[in-house]
Request: fold
Amino acid sequence: YGKNSIKFLRLHREGKKHFVKEVEVCTHLRLTSPQEYLEGNNSLVIPTDTIKNIVLVLAKKNGISSLEQFAIDICNHFMTTFCQVAYVKTYVQEVPWQRLHEDGVPHIHSFICVPDGIRFCEAEQCRNGPLIVFAGIKDLKLMKTTQSGFEGFYKNEHTTLPERHDRILCGELFCKWSYGECKDFDFDCIWKKIRECILEAFAGPPDCGEYSPSYQKTINCIQMLVLSRVSQVQVIEVVLNNTFYNVVDMKNLGLTNDKEVLIPVEAPYGSCACTLGRK
Reply:
């Protein structure tokens, strides 16, 4: 049991310059006894309102140096404070605020919300067990307008999809990775590096791109690049929910539409997923 959607903004001031972290936290506990379920005995139950207040107090006292460290702080607090807690799991996601720039100059106290992917993390721990940390990015919308195709797939009497050697590749990406046992990592630096790997593997070189024969192959390229460059990552999961675009037929309007006007197919949509880990 626990408390979901604990939302707050943590404001940190250094003189006139301000820093913000707006997050949503979900914290769940498992106790050493299920007596509150089986017997209605609540003597070991930490109220969910107390859980919420602890999260807010930790944000006040410790600040949020990184999402992962804040999740670790929450897990450590419940494990060290309450002997009846057998397991704790905390999920933290961040609102993507970025500092506003005016004529290239960073503003001291103004920010803009940029929807270029949502950062999140999870930390979980069993009593007498290691602290395990996951991190990731979700709702990252990516598109490339060429250098993508889908050919040579299995066909039978139910197949109506034509082969394509030049199509738009577009999707919403979810990526989650595991650090294994928690160590003293620079979580912010690693997260930024992995995000750069995702964008590089998806797009290819900026002057020419790189051909993608399928969504599945693109997912694998992302995972392989991350594992080759970021040694701290042990397992990486990627899900790519596909957005398809149909070319509008303009023949009746007396126009030739050479893939210049397209309409997105809202539903149903495809989805590809893969989890890849080190040996």
